[in-house]
Amino acid sequence: MEFKIYIYITYKNIKLYMFLLTEMAKLPISTSILFLLILLSIHSGEISLLVEAQKTWCVAKPTTTDIELQNNLDYACSHADCRSLRNGNACYSSNSRLHQASYAMNQYYQSHGRIDSSCDFSNTGLIAVSDPSYGNCIFDYGGNEPLAAESNGWCVAKPMAPPELLLANINYVCGEIECSIIQANGDCYSPDNILSHASIAMNMYYVIHNKTNLSCYFNNSGIVVLNDPSYGICDYY
Fold it and tell me: Is 213 helix (H, G, I), strand (E, B) or coil?
């Protein structure tokens, strides 16, 4: 299996970087590999090592406010290529700020090392391990390993999934599972929008069906994410 190592480093840590490479060169090959694998878990402010393995993307949490989405969009597009969001291009969407922000956040994430902090966005980002692309809008990705049959994550709606499909998902799931949690006065009723409600319902279905990839497919409108999308009193379980 081929691994690609990305190293992001600032000048003040150049001595540490050279020291690590020098010490590794002194070790037997098997020990060097073990040492390298240990280093791969390092995530400090200045050094991040990333094995290019599992495919990952960055998307916005379904509960992110419009102000936060706009801030994320502006920041990401000032540091990454967002030309696909322009009017007439494949990812243009005039009525989905969450989709626009998610695309921009993913562009930033992919171009800044695919490390956790590159998808934080003040705790409004989610790292996805299934493809958030929809229609002709393709989200770039890094990594080359397919998603395992089961993932210990959460299921949320794709940022660009059509509202009518998300409503069908809610009706389908809530015909099988009790969904008072997304009804008025329920813990997950707010924010009162279809993408957030669909994500809650889809995740409940995903959980009771053993978190298999298929149970988060929903006609290509669901994605599996690695970090918890819970917010306030609304608990994704």
Answer: helix
